[in-house]
Write a structure and sequence with these properties.
The protein is an alpha+beta fold. The chain is built from 3 helices and 6 strands, in the order H-H-H-E-E-E-E-E-E. Strands 1, 2, 3, 4, 5 and 6 form a 6-stranded antiparallel beta sheet that branches.
Length: about 130
Amino acid sequence: MRPIGRLLLFLPLLAVGLVSFVIVRSQQGQGATLIMRQQQAEALTPAKLARVVRVAPDPVTHAKGRSASCFPLGSGELHNPWRCAITYPSGRVIQYRVTLHADGSYTGDDEVVRYQGQTHSDTGQIQGCCVVVP
């Protein structure tokens, strides 16, 4: 092979190598930035969970909740299970036992229903998504 032929083969390979080097070097710090953002993820709070479960529909009227409050019953990263009380426009207040999943989704079963001064049980269930989890 002639020297010019070798040079024509070598130059494109050299250009690809240089471009690859520049791209890798320019993105070198992004991994550390991502790790730092994950470590600084906001903690899971009762208010964050309440904001998401509030829109769960009433099992009878199918209306979205007006307000909600939650508090953790467990420990660990997700604090499972949670107890959340949702107040609906009809006046019904339903207390759910909620389990939060690692992907941010949740499921819940009703424990107590208060309506017009009476307390009883329904068979209502809620589910939804997405709570930002640490």
